[in-house]
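Appendix B. One record, verbatim.
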Amino acid sequence: MPRDPASPLALLQRRLGHAFADESMLQRALTHRSFGAGHNERLEFLGDAVLNLAVSRLLYDRFGDSDEGDLTRVRAHLVREDSLHRAALALGLPDVLRLSEGEARGGGTQRASILADAVEALIGAVYLEAGYEAALAVVQRLFGEVIQATEADSWSKDAKTELQEWLQARRLPVPAYRIAATRGEKHAQTFEVECAVPSLGLVEGGEGRSRRAAEQEAARRMLGTLKASDRPGGPLRS
């Protein structure tokens, strides 16, 4: 851990609950590919797998009576980009990420996809340095409270299905999805998708590391907008 106990890196490690013996491993996990060599993409790849395994274990223990489908849906909710983004903000990652000057000026330290990737890279780094149990403890620290508070049946439908059913119940046309943009190399692309409900003049966007993930995020945001508008006094009730 850095010698200064008040440094951003020291604070990050306390929030993680893991002190790195090899600070170069920590620095690599916090280095975006725009910064140059020694970036975190390989650690992100490893951390993604470790995160899925750790969350699966925690859900297996928490929901003893739930079937595979329920567990899969809850896991998808927990490991999606916006959940990782919230974890990154709680860890204070915008203060410690290493990016190129251009990426930083473009708001990279606040970009959800970059922050989510860094969380996965940190989990991968902990796994490499200290093993699975240490990585599991970090995941427990980041997501354990949410897992204990949630109920499996809260995630019985994915966002695209729920949105379609919400619209059909009101005799409105189903939504349309389109890819608005893609970023990054082919092996590590980020998709930007728009979800449109033309009959209501509404469009919401979503990002993800696959087209499906981006569509689910856009659908989730559209659902939030529609449900808020459908309340008494909202535009759909006026």
